[in-house]
Amino acid sequence: MNDTIAVIGATRGTGLAAMRQLIDAGRPATAVVRSVEKARGLFGDKATLVYGDVTRPETLAQAIDPDWAGIVFTVDITGGIAGRGMFASREKIRAVMYGGLVNTVEACKQRGFKGRLVLLSTIGLSIPSTGMKILNWVKPGLRDHSIDKAEYLKKSGLDWTVVRAGILNDKPGGAHALTITGEDRPLEMRYQIARADLARVMLACVTDPAISKREFSVFWGEAGHDSDAELAAKLAALAG
Ligand SMILES: NC(=O)c1ccc[n+]([C@@H]2O[C@H](COP(=O)([O-])OP(=O)(O)OC[C@H]3O[C@@H](n4cnc5c(N)ncnc54)[C@H](OP(=O)(O)O)[C@@H]3O)[C@@H](O)[C@H]2O)c1
């Protein structure tokens, strides 16, 4: 296994933040993208760029390197209203959110990938809330697709981590200590997190031994900042 971390979903949001953190730290990074041109505009020659569309399994079989240390998977449907796939059909959303993860898992198995797949999921899937009701209405079936993708990964035989994030924002990271808990929380504004902070946690999950086959929730706590050691201790606490 080498030190490379691959990001699928690298050209926007949390995946883009993860790529930027890897590049800033001088760590080997690969972006698996459906537009290499767009990725080149974002990362230049500072990362390896590989074509891969999660709705096209044959492209993933070509893209995945079995020697990567891990894959950070942050794919979500894009386009449509607000660029976030709102009011797309249930089938289209499922093809990306659930089908994309299934195709990635199967390609990993086919290629003999031995690293860890770190999957972005959401809090509030097991607790009824108005927030989840609204989200499930604007993105039909989101709750089912999110539950199903995590279950598929957990049963895959691969090494995995499922990170259930609070409501995402694009504020700068590093201004809050993080709450990390094995418990679920309702999808409410008081449980928020910046994509930059979430990206940092997801990257830490690739190599942290405590996080193998764990699912947890993460959202902002008090103002402050977790050092790398403090973050590692919070992740280690999940292992009991
Ligand atoms: N929004 C929230 O408050 C919230 C809360 C908790 C969890 N989540 C979860 O967070 C995830 C989304 O994170 P985000 O908002 O940071 O991401 P995002 O900005 O929506 O980015 C999605 C990424 O997926 C890529 N993508 C889309 N279709 C693809 C395909 N067919 N093949 C390969 N890549 C594809 C996009 O690439 P292009 O640039 O090519 O479009 C983009 O890089 C979802 O799983 C969501 O359930 C969201």
Automatic annotation (TrEMBL):
Lineage, top ranks: Bacteria, Pseudomonadati, Pseudomonadota, Gammaproteobacteria, Immundisolibacterales
UniProt cross-references to InterPro entries, sorted A to Z: NAD(P)-bd_dom, NAD(P)-bd_dom_sf
Species this protein is from: Immundisolibacter cernigliae
Domain NAD(P)-binding: 9-209
The protein's name in its UniProt record: NAD(P)-binding domain-containing protein
